[in-house]
Predict the structure of Eukaryotic translation initiation factor 6.
Amino acid sequence: MAVRLQFENSNEVGVFSKLTNSYCLVAIGGSENFY
């Protein structure tokens, strides 16, 4: 049970980091295109 909860938490963190990373890439690309 503990391993399952730990895996679910790590999976959510992975998805969250992917979303934030893609958002940062879009923000950086948008700023480069803007300038």
Summary: The chain has a mean pLDDT of 61. The chain is about 95% helix and 0% strand. The helical segments are 2-34.
